[in-house]
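Homework help thread (please don't just give me the answer)

Our assignment gives two proteins as sequence + structure token strings and asks us to describe the second one. The first is just a warm-up. Here they are:
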Amino acid sequence: MCFRKRNGYRPPDHFNAKIYTGPIPVEREPSMVRGGQTPLQIATTTPQRPNACCFCWSCCCSCSWSEEQRRARRRTKDTRLETTSNCEVCTWHLHSAKPTPEEARQWSQSFDRLMRSPAGRNTFREFLRTEFSEENMLFWLACEDLKQELSTSAIQEKARLIYEDYVSILSPKEVSLDARVREVINRKILEPTPHTFEDAQLQIYTLMHRDSYPRFLNSPIYRSLLRTGSCSSSET
């Protein structure tokens, strides 16, 4: 017997440590068990945390694209938004006369005057379509329609559709809203009312006023209307 073992000698622990030879190959890696489950079972049974920016009601400000980036993206993809069968465009063409040059001239006095006119909204919407930002007008009109609703079930359904079509970042028609307004919507959407999107509607109204309205007044669509008093159809 070794002299050291015979006299009760015990080598230090680090003498018994295994020499590191690199990571264990996949086929040799031991299968760890937790509560009687294999890692594969744990991975399949453990609920995954959803992406907060894509699948929940909340959103961060980094999710919101600027209006200029949004238009650039739509120009690249040449996105065309569908129109609804009962849209204001159809109603205006069927029941209203085309605006005169004098009426169209009044739209340049203020954005409020333009938006109060059905013919003005239609013409402005036609212009927004050329800039790939028609969703702003569609959202504003949808919010106006929601404000007129009295039925609780109809309010809930329309509010859900507005959120899915214009607020959700998964929608191709998402409008540009800041984080504060989105947070307000996320709270109110749980128990929607006709005024759930009031803050968002005001923000989009302001955006159209400051960003799109000045370009509209210098657009060929509006200048042509001033000359001839005719308005081309926004339906394709």
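The one we have to describe:
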Amino acid sequence: MDARPVIRRLRERRTDLARLTARRAAATPLVLLAVTTGTFVLAAASPLNPLAAHFGSGYERTTAADREAAAAALGTDVPWWRAWWQWVTGLVEGDAGYSHSYRQPVTEVVLERLPWTVLLSAAGLALALGVTLLAGVAAARRPHGALDRSLAAAAVALSGVPPFVLAMGSVAVFAVTLGWLPVTGAAPPGQDPTLAATARHLVLPTVALAAGQVPWMLLALRRAVLDAEASPAVAEARARGVGEPAVLTGHIAAVSWAPLIALLGARVPELIAGSLVVEAVFAWPGLAAATVDAALEADFALLAAVTLGASATVLVGTWLADCLLLLADPRVRIDA
């Protein structure tokens, strides 16, 4: 593969890339600061009682002294702003706090579960991109043909189905009715995860997650491909006798990437939210359960860490998408 066009484009747009990176880097600390502050404010305003979750069914039998002692131990007896400041100063020193819902350091909780979430998100995104690109090729080969119209109709219909419904539907069809694939976890109950077991358990969550992303990607790419097909440049290339593979790769694909890249950047938050929903349905050992538990038990430290990580992922994902967009289309100008 010839890397010279990519190197040339990097040289041409290095000033734009540097300006974009500098602006995003300057804004990132402010955004993350606002996100963590909002997390502590909302957690403190929640009607859920963390002590009730901590004591469980024995909460009603506890004395006031027991509740005060538990509140002091859990750190729920201080104002939200003090809890936030303690967490931020600890984070600066490398300590993300202690999770009272999991009774272990927050860093350990996140490190144990983050790889599983990354695995599911990456697999779902890769599958969605693969299906989208194949459908885009079909649209480019026969625009407005039967296959193209069928794919577009299926994408429109699928775009109105929530991720939770897609996940439950896949469980009902492929796990319960057909019995082809396992439903929950990353391995059979009581067994340690192996490569083969994890791959088999990963299939349904990946399909469910990808199914929620494919419609938007497919419709955006299809529209871009159809616009490129109808452009004078493509008509002129075909009139000159340029072969169809060269037209597809050199004229259509070259201008169809930009809308898809822009859409990927805009939908990073939905990919994260969809991943958490799918994890909850399939009991995938990722961050979804930790997020829910942290919210229900007002686990400030864990909730802030998960929210901070999700926000940082969105910021990095949108920055990377905008950088790719600058490289993909020389006409693009990004001011923020």
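TA reply:
I won't write it for you, but here's a hint about the kind of observation we're looking for: The longest helix spans residues 106-141.
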